[in-house]
Amino acid sequence: MHNTPRRTALALAAVAPLSRILRRAAAQQAQPGGGAFPSRPVRIVVPFPPGQASDTFARLMAEKLGARWPQPVVVENKPGAGGAVAVEAVVASAADGYTLLWGGTGVTVLPAVAPRPLPYDVQRDLVPVARVADIPMMIVAGAGSGIRTLADLVARARAKPGDLVYGSGGPGSLQHLTGELFAWRAGIKLNHVPYRGSGPAMTDLISGTIPLMVDSSASALPQVRAGRVVALAVASEQRSSLMPEVPTAAEAGVQGVVAMGWNGIFAPVRTPPAVVQRVHADANAIILEPAVQARFGELGAEATPGEQEAFRAFVAEELAKWRAVAQTAQVKLD
Question: What is the CATH number for 172?
Answer without folding.
Answer: 3.40.190.10
